[in-house]
């Protein structure tokens, strides 16, 4: 029989109850997936709200990406819960002083919002497909069209207004959502590693970084699969964003750590011991090291200001590095925070289980799900716009 | 025309309708599924409080034990262990003595959904701790961190690793506490000699008894003698002859008598039984040695020396412990397992030993 | 507006905190009134197993006299039995820590009954005893410290529970509704004292309740009942002659991690600065 719990070995003194680490891989992947939502939505907003035309090629794809990940954000949480069947309690009787209580509403609201945003962005296509397609697929589009095929200047004006209003709400929501995820950790005074005022901000900017990064990777990969050339102008735009947020993120993370060391409050020896010991590789190499390498690669291409195949490769590699770096950051926060004992006089060591409800395999599966959904969504609602069409149809 | 242009398109009207329906369903669901007691006292399920409070207590307190074990209870309250409640050593009494009394509370209390019942129904009979060394050292092992006021022993050098209950009564563990009073004045042997006149008829003028059933007192442990007289006086150790004798004695008299007899020089009664019997007794006596001394001469003033005592007296004493006529939890436990033959062997062995 | 020296200056932090709290409470209250209006905000007293216990009349408190504790762990044993806590070395409602200051060492050596060495000494994870590892060491100072839930006035665990499955009663005990807990373990994270654990079998959080089912019947908590040296003191802070009121009055007591702003209701005597 599988053991009911894994007990973590420790050094120094830790409270007896701490030896079972409460939050494991599912809580690592949860803010990571949430972050991807926020980042890709930000790119879409740049087109839909700020009207930056160079993002047009990925604007709708970014929305689909955002939705694909958002739909699966609750999955790791449900897998983590001891009683997922009671999860509706969060919606029925939310306890408003809890950072978690907002989640059910936030997630629901956000899924609805992104879906609506997509619906308005695609409405003209949906109406067209509803009239063209036959069979099951045709039925699907007809349901989506809500039985109204009306396309007129009036409807176009309405749709554009809704699209913009939703995007504005969405950008607030996306950032609120991720700032809130940071708040989940940052608001806990019990954990020295988490209880920082900078935590929500760091979560937010690193979320955007990772979201842009995954969009870059997905865009380049799908372009290759579709055998169409990458829109270099668009890619460079995303690269600029990635570059900027990367710098922002890394500086904030560095500031936070320096702050902690400089203040040197009680238990700082233990914190340093953790940062250079058990967390050394994931903090020093994966999180910080990868971000710095990505920074130099990107700086090189930004500096050169050429747009060629090399830039595509360089930017994609940087994006991949940032995806790893942000994942490592989530790991370091969630796992690191719990490896540092509340006594500040001991360290625990977490060992990720391979199998089980919260094991590595489950985590990989959970992370694979959004890609599957994204594949389905791009089939149902092709996001790609023909190249020559440079006029904004707003 | 301007009117029709600004009119809300059908698909938006339908969308809003869907939201209205969705919202209504959510509200109805909330009213239907929300627990009825939620929010009665605060932002929680009000019924939970009574459910938690309905858990049955497992630890019942000494009063519960007293109702059946009055004797043990009295013994315990008189001793220094009265600060340690019964259940601290014997475990929770809630499921004792009968299975019907077993409670199946769980961390979720009354709930039928959450229970750890199995773990609660293990033993209906409460444990009498088998390994007293393991149990007693939980509190009494000498260990840095324990306050000085706590009685502590060096486990490796204390009593050769024997079970604690060999010498200590766990319910009243102070040695000699059973009946023995505070030492009081040391006692005056010379005064005791005068008072001993009344005893001489049976126990001999110098405390060496000539009767096989009456014990010699000369050379006996002072604390034991005093304790025995006090026990006769109080009735804790009933004896038709001795109770009457002891009744008239003051505590000072007792101290003096004890001093006199313990200082008197002893004379072994000797054994009339075969040497074979005595050597068999010697083998059995290993269990007695820790308190009564390897050669039957006790090292502790509270425990009697046995060497050279009257053989018939020793037999009677052991039988009295067996039957309960002489009450002593330690001796009762030790004597319980002895056969008549073994008692004879032990008595023969001790009677034949040289006294101090 | 300027403040002159000597003039009373309102504590800004406190003000902010009060405002924050007022905001949260107002929100919660509004929300609750909105949701539960149909029932009204009842202030009634629950019928506690027909005992006539009135939870508005009591304010329970707990004292720990660390100078008396002998580290026998009978309290831990009693607690596990009384409350059906998982029988292993990783789930405790109450536990005992040992602090040993060796000559020449700055920091104390700390362990609890859950330490592997102590588990080896007891021979099983289901029984608890302290080993004698410092028997031959040069010990400068040593003491035992029992720990349990502090039943804080401002419990961070209650603050973070998303569903209201944990709450503070008017008599001053933080309880968990095991039938409502979703098992997210946010409260486990939020407790600065490590007092909460996650029951692996039932997958709900568990914590010390000061034996709420006992104290509402007029009994002492099981750990207090089992303690052979009166190192644990329990009583009603509303009653000036209760053991806890006397304990607080007659000693210079302290609480754990006061800077957390939790206002604990477990009062300690005889501990050192390293005890958190």
Topology:
The complex is a heterotrimer of chains A (about 400), B (about 350) and C (about 280).
Chain A: E1 10-13, H1 25-48, H2 56-72, H3 74-80, H4 89-92, H5 101-132, H6 135-144, H7 153-186, H8 199-226, H9 232-263, H10 268-276, H11 280-304, H12 309-339, E2 345-348, H13 360-380
Helix pairs in contact in A: 1-2, 1-3, 1-7, 1-8, 1-12, 1-13, 2-5, 2-13, 5-6, 5-7, 7-8, 8-9, 8-12, 9-11, 9-12, 11-12
Chain B: H1 2-6, H2 10-33, H3 47-53, H4 62-66, H5 70-78, H6 86-90, H7 132-140, H8 189-195, H9 200-203, H10 222-234, H11 240-247, H12 251-263, H13 275-284, H14 286-292, H15 311-323, H16 329-336, H17 340-352
Helix pairs in contact in B: 8-12, 10-11, 10-12, 13-17, 15-16, 15-17
Chain C: H1 12-36, E1 60-65, H2 74-83, E2 94-102, E3 109-112, H3 116-122, E4 139-148, H4 156-160, E5 166-168, E6 174-176, H5 186-190, E7 197-199, E8 204-206, H6 212-215, H7 222-226, E9 232-236, H8 243-250, E10 266-269
Parallel strand pairs in C: 1-10
Antiparallel strand pairs in C: 1-9, 2-3, 2-4, 5-6, 7-8
Descriptive report:
The complex is a heterotrimer of chains A (394), B (356) and C (276). Chain A has helices at residues 25-48, 56-72, 74-80, 89-92, 101-132, 135-144, 153-186, 199-226, 232-263, 268-276, 280-304, 309-339, 360-380, and strands at residues 10-13, 345-348. With 394 residues, chain A is mostly helical. Chain A has one domain. Chain A has a two-stranded antiparallel sheet with strand order 1-2. In chain A, α1 (25-48) packs antiparallel against α2, α5 packs across α6 (135-144) and α8 (199-226) packs antiparallel against α9 (232-263). Chain B has 356 residues and is mostly helical. Among the domains of chain B are: 62-120, no CATH class; 189-263, Cytochrome c-like domain (Cytochrome Bc1 Complex, Chain D, domain 2, Orthogonal Bundle), CATH 1.10.760.10; 275-352, Cytochrome c-like domain (Cytochrome Bc1 Complex, Chain D, domain 2, Orthogonal Bundle). The longest helix of chain B has 24 residues, at 10-33. Chain C folds into 2 domains: 1-42; 55-96 and 145-276, Alpha-Beta Plaits (2-Layer Sandwich), CATH 3.30.70.20. Helices cover 25% and strands 18% of the residues of chain C. Chain C contains 8 helices and 10 strands. Chain C has helices spanning 12-36, 74-83, 116-122, 156-160, 186-190, 212-215, 222-226, 243-250, and strands spanning 60-65, 94-102, 109-112, 139-148, 166-168, 174-176, 197-199, 204-206, 232-236, 266-269. Chain C has a 3-stranded mixed sheet with strand order 9-1-10, covered by helices on one side. Chain C starts with 11 loop residues before the first helix and ends in a 7-residue tail after the last strand. Chains in contact: A-B, A-C, B-C. The interface between B and C is large, with 55 and 76 residues.
């Amino acid at each position: 029989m599988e053991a009911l719990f894994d007990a973590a070995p420790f050094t120094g003194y830790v409270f007896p109850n701490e030896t079972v680490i409460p939050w494991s891989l599912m809580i690592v992947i949860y803010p990571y997936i949430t972050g991807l939502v926020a980042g890709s939505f930000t790119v879409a907003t740049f087109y839909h709200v700020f009207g930056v035309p160079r993002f047009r090629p990925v604007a709708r794809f970014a929305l689909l990406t955002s939705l694909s990940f958002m739909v699966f954000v609750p999955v790791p949480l449900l897998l983590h819960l001891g009683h997922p069947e009671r999860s509706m309690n969060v919606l029925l009787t939310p306890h408003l002083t809890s950072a978690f209580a907002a989640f059910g509403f936030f997630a629901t609201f956000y899924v609805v919002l992104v879906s609506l945003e997509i619906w308005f962005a695609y409405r003209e296509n949906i109406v067209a497909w509803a009239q063209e397609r036959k069979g099951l697929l045709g039925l699907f589009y007809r349901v989506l069209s809500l039985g109204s095929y009306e396309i007129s200047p009036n409807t176009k004006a309405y749709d554009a207004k809704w699209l913009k209003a939703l995007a504005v709400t969405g950008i607030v929501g996306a950032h609120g959502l991720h700032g809130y995820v940071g708040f989940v950790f940052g608001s806990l005074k019990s954990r020295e590693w988490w209880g920082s005022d900078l935590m929500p901000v760091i979560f937010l900017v690193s979320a955007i970084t990772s979201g842009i990064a995954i969009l870059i990777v997905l865009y380049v990969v799908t372009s290759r699969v579709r055998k169409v050339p990458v829109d270099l102008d668009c890619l460079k735009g995303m690269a600029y964003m990635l570059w900027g947020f990367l710098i922002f993120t890394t500086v904030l993370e560095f500031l936070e750590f320096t702050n902690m060391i400089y203040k040197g409050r009680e238990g700082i020896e233990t914190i340093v011991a953790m940062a250079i010991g058990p967390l050394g590789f994931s903090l020093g190499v994966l999180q910080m090291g990868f971000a710095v390498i990505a920074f130099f690669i990107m700086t090189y291409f930004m500096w050169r200001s050429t747009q060629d195949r090399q830039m595509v490769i360089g930017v994609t590699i940087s994006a991949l590095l940032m995806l790893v770096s942000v994942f490592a950051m989530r790991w370091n926060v969630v796992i690191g925070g719990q490896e540092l004992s509340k006594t500040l006089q001991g360290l625990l060591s977490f060992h990720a289980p391979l199998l089980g409800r919260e094991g590595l395999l489950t985590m990989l599966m959970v992370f694979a799900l959004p890609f599957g959904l994204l594949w389905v969504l791009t089939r149902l609602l092709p996001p790609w716009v023909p190249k020559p069409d440079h006029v904004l149809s707003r | 025309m301007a009117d029709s242009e600004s009119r809300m398109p059908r698909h938006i009207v339908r969308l809003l309708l869907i939201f209205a329906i969705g919202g209504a369903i959510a509200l109805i669901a909330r009213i239907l599924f929300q627990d009825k007691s939620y929010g009665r006292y605060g932002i929680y399920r009000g019924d939970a409080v009574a459910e938690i409070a309905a858990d049955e207590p497992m630890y019942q307190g000494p009063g519960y034990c007293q109702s059946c074990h009055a004797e043990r209870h009295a013994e315990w309250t008189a001793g220094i262990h009265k600060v340690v409640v019964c259940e601290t050593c014997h475990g929770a009494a809630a499921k004792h003595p009968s299975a019907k009394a077993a409670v199946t509370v769980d961390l979720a209390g009354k709930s039928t959904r959450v229970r750890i019942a199995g773990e609660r129904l293990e033993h209906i009979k409460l444990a009498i701790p088998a390994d007293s060394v393991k149990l007693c050292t939980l509190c009494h092992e000498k260990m840095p961190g324990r306050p000085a006021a706590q009685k502590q022993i060096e486990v490796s050098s204390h009593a050769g690793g024997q079970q604690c209950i060999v010498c200590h009564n766990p319910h009243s563990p102070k040695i000699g506490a059973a009946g023995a009073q505070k030492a009081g004045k040391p006692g005056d042997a010379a005064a005791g000699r005068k008072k001993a006149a009344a005893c001489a008829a049976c126990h001999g003028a110098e405390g060496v008894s000539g009767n096989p059933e009456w014990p010699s007192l000369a050379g006996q442990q002072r604390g034991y003698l005093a304790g025995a007289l006090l026990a006769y006086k109080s009735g804790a150790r009933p004896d038709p002859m001795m109770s009457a004798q002891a009744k008239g004695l003051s505590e000072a008299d007792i101290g003096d008598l004890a001093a006199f007899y313990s200082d008197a020089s002893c004379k072994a009664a000797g054994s009339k039984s075969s040497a074979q019997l005595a050597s068999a007794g010697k083998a059995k006596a290993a269990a007695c040695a820790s308190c009564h001394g390897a050669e039957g001469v006790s090292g502790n003033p509270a425990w009697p020396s046995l060497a050279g005592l009257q053989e018939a007296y020793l037999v009677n004493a052991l039988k009295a412990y067996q039957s309960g006529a002489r009450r002593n939890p330690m001796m009762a436990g030790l004597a319980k397992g002895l056969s008549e033959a073994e008692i004879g062997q032990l008595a023969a062995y001790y009677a034949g030993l040289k006294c101090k | 507006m300027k403040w002159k020296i000597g003039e009373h200056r309102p504590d800004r932090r406190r003000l902010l905190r009060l405002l924050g709290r007022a905001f949260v409470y107002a929100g919660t209250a509004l929300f609750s009134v909105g949701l539960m209006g149909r029932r009204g905000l009842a202030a009634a007293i629950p019928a506690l197993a027909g005992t006539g216990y009135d939870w508005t009349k009591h304010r329970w408190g707990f004292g720990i006299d660390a100078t008396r504790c002998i580290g026998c762990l009978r309290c831990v044993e009693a607690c596990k039995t009384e409350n059906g806590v998982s029988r292993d070395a990783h789930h405790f409602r109450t536990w005992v820590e040992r602090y040993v200051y060796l000559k020449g060492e700055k920091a104390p050596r700390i362990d609890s009954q859950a330490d592997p060495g102590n588990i080896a000494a007891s021979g099983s994870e289901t029984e608890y005893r302290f080993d004698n590892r410092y028997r031959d060491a040069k010990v400068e100072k040593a003491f035992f410290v029992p720990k349990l839930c502090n039943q804080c006035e401002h419990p961070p665990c209650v603050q973070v529970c998303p569903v209201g499955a944990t709450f503070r009663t008017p008599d001053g005990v933080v309880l968990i509704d095991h039938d409502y807990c979703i098992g997210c373990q946010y409260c486990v994270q939020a407790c600065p004292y490590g007092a909460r654990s996650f029951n692996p079998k039932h997958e709900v959080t568990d914590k010390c309740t000061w034996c709420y089912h006992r104290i509402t019947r007029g009994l002492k908590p099981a750990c207090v009942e089992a303690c052979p040296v009166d190192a644990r003191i329990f009583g009603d802070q509303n009653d000036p002659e209760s053991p806890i009121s006397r304990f607080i009055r007659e000693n210079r007591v302290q609480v754990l991690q006061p800077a957390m702003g939790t206002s604990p209701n477990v009062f300690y005597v005889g501990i050192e600065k390293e005890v958190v």
